[in-house]
Automatic annotation (TrEMBL):
The gene is pgi. GO terms for molecular function: carbohydrate derivative binding; glucose-6-phosphate isomerase activity; monosaccharide binding. Belongs to the GPI family. This is Glucose-6-phosphate isomerase. Keywords: Cytoplasm, Gluconeogenesis, Glycolysis, Isomerase. PROSITE patterns: P_GLUCOSE_ISOMERASE_1, P_GLUCOSE_ISOMERASE_2, P_GLUCOSE_ISOMERASE_3.
Length: 548
């Protein structure tokens, strides 16, 4: 069962939404609250330790009904079934998309090409668990017999961003192992990390699904050379492990067969942290915490599969985002976590969202004539308030926002927590209400500002408000709640790909740059570079002339 191939703009719901949009585009959310006393309650979902309040949106009950009608018309239910059951919904690469199977219970059966993949998943998990325990407890040591103190994850894209985000976000739960992430092919990046390391006590985890990625192999080779130069007795087998779909390529690199942790090609890179790609997460937090992360994701999977659409968190958030993207023509959306632990969340979601849904050809092979993937960005509150919030409040762009906060801080400093959460709530309130002329006048008068000065300043003091936000209020940051949150965004990406009728799980767009970089690298040594465009040719010549 393939994904349905329905052009969303040809559905009855889309036509209704277009007409409906004309009626509501200028309505204020404040008016909507005034007309519906139950709005805050009806437009929020309480699930496990999550409260998701989507009432501060430019959407009426009818908007939501029509959006969900659209979801039904594009056959989202059938698509969800295909997604979870191992159908090859990544048609352009002829692969299933089964990151959900990585966190399924051991008793579940998920078939790919007639084979139940769950036993293989659990075999790798057991290997990860034993390896993690041995490294953390000091049973497994480096070549001089000393326990490991540092772990370096060498990978890029999904082989870096997920593990790096999870380790950083959950650092409160970390053990004694120091973790480092080398991703960029920038030699200064790897050099800065190497200078902090002792080869005797450092474990290197080379993560690459394909084990052909230029950045990762270059960094791994540089690190291996550095390691072998440190001591004649330095032993690669004791210090290098690999995570890959290939058993051959890591061995060609010099990694022992026993030190290879397998992933499968039905795990997309940007959704791979739940697989052995998460080995550094397991090492940094301990295997039990890694399992809890997976358990959280599994709970969100079950919610997504079973909740009715109007109470389904990923579905509701995805469809509201479609509303802004395709009807209000919003170009981007922002994620603002009120927790410094989530500093890297936006960066992580950028790959998931933009590599998946940055597509312009639909599932019938036709160019789309409507907008697809949104630009996603963000940063933590309260820092972001002092950086880019001015544009939200008084700029000309509509940027829907997800505000994510935790009721309880991990370090239980209530003085800070109350201030943090008061800001978290105040910003969505300010974005909703804005400030009217009358309120601005009253404020200026109270400060003793003269009438002439008030008249001059007034236009600048008024905020239009009516800016849409979702509030995700979670009890506490734990491995489990992070697992739920990440899985929520994964499913939001899926739903949007289904609605936009695109293939979300390939990434051919990133290939061209890789190919051209290969040609340019060769041309740094070539006499004739005339086959490039004039600008690139000029820049290559400049580099060759000035490079020392
Ligand atoms: O950027 C393209 C991409 O294929 C990502 O999807 C992937 O996460 C990354 O490169 C790294 O690939 P690999 O794990 O094969 O090294």
């Amino acid at each position: 069962m393939a994904l349905p191939k329905i052009n969303p703009t040809h559905t009855a719901a889309w036509t209704k939404l277009q007409a409906h949009f004309k009626q509501v585009e200028n309505l204020s959310i404040k008016q909507m609250f005034a007309q519906d006393a139950a709005r805050a309650n009806n437009m929020s979902i309480r699930w496990e330790d999550f409260l998701v309040d989507f009432s501060k949106n430019r959407a009426t009950n009818e908007t939501l009904e029509l959006l969900l009608e659209l979801a039904k018309e594009v056959k989202l239910e059938q698509a969800i079934e295909a997604y979870f059951s191992g159908e090859k919904i990544n048609e352009t690469e002829n692969r299933a998309v089964l990151h959900t199977a990585l966190r399924a219970n051991q008793t579940t059966a998920v078939f790919v090409d007639g084979k139940n993949v769950v036993p293989d998943i659990y075999a790798v998990k057991h290997k990860m668990k034993a390896f993690t325990n041995a490294v953390v407890n000091g049973g497994k040591t480096g070549y001089t017999g000393k326990p490991f103190t540092d772990v370096v994850n060498i990978g890029i894209g999904g082989s870096d961003l997920g593990p790096a985000m999870a380790v950083d976000t959950l650092k409160y739960y970390k053990n004694h192992l120091r973790t480092h992430f080398v991703s960029n092919v920038d030699g200064d990046h790897v050099a800065e990390i190497l200078k902090t390391l002792n080869p005797e006590t450092t474990l290197f985890v080379v993560v690459s699904k394909t084990f052909t990625t230029q950045e990762t192999l270059t960094n791994a080779q540089t690190i291996k050379t550095w390691f072998l130069q440190s001591d004649a007795k330095a032993d690669v087998a004791k210090h290098f492990v690999a995570v890959s779909t290939s058993e051959e390529n890591p061995q060609v690199f010099g990694i022992d067969k026993d030190n290879i942790f397998l992933v499968w090609n039905w795990v997309g890179g940007r959704f791979s942290l739940w697989s052995a790609v998460g080995l550094t997460i397991s090492l940094a937090l301990g295997y039990d915490n890694f399992e809890k992360l997976l358990e959280g994701a599994n709970k969100m999977d079950n919610h997504f599969k079973s909740a009715s659409f109007n109470k389904n968190i990923p579905v509701v958030l995805a469809m509201l985002s479609v509303w802004y993207n395709n009807f209000f023509n919003a170009e981007s959306e922002v994620v603002i976590p009120y927790s410094s632990y989530l500093n890297t969340l936006a960066k992580y979601l950028q790959q998931g969202t933009m590599e998946s849904n940055g597509k312009s050809i639909d599932r019938n092979g036709e160019a789309v004539d409507y907008q697809t993937g949104t630009i996603i960005w963000g940063g933590p509150g309260t820092d972001s308030q002092h950086a880019f919030f001015q544009l939200f409040h008084q700029g000309t762009k509509l940027i829907p926002a997800d505000f994510i906060g935790f009721v309880n801080a991990l370090h239980q400093n209530n003085n800070h927590q109350d201030k943090l959460i008061s800001n978290f709530l105040a910003q969505t309130e300010a974005l909703l209400n804005g400030k009217t002329k009358a309120e601005a006048v009253q404020e200026l008068e109270a400060k003793g500002v003269s009438k002439t000065e008030i008249d001059r300043l007034l236009p600048y003091m008024v905020f239009e408000g009516n800016k849409p936000t979702n509030t995700l209020f979670i009890n506490k940051l734990t491995p489990e709640s992070l697992g739920k949150l990440i899985a929520l965004y994964e499913h939001k990406i899926f739903v949007q790909g289904v609605v936009w009728n695109i293939f979300s799980y390939d990434q051919f767009g990133v290939e061209l740059g890789k190919q051209l970089a290969g040609h340019i690298l060769k041309d740094f040594k070539a006499a004739n570079i005339g086959h490039h465009d004039p600008s690139t040719q000029h820049l290559i010549a400049y580099y060759k002339a000035l490079k020392s």
